[in-house]
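thought: fold this chain, then report.
action: predict
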Amino acid sequence: MKTRSLPLIVAGLLLCACSAGAQQRIAFVNSTKIFQELPAAQDAQKRIDGLGKPMQDSLEAMKKDLQEKYAEYQKKEALYNDATKKSEQQKLLEQERGVQEYQLTRFGQDGLLARRSESIISPIRDRIKAAIGAVAKELKYNFVFDKTEQIQILLYGDPKDDITFKVIDRLRRG
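observation:
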């Protein structure tokens, strides 16, 4: 619901701003391109990948162990009495819950990797926003939108109003 109403809100704000009689200048950037071109963002991504790799390896090992124990259970299931079956099934369920809990606490939306990623990326995002603001002020733009491959809030933009590379240049110069 929020994503559907966002373009309408943006269009409404633009209409209000433009109808106020002032000449409004609008530009856009491709934030994905900026992140790809910024060495600090590339280094941050490597750090995040380095943090995630051991956790992913642990998760894969836990899943493999669970699969092996489940396969072993299936082979021996016919030999078990009802109490043993129930006990073994309970062990498998507990182990499966443990794997799911590990996955959620490490890779979930509020998991360890998400929190650490945010702490690494946040300063870079702030630098990029500051650079966008500086370029927009310098070039006298009132609004700057983001147009990436994934998110299309800006449905059309004249290429002359694309300030992506000016922002990248500003970030590289410091």
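thought: worth noting. The chain has a mean pLDDT of 87.
final: tokens above.
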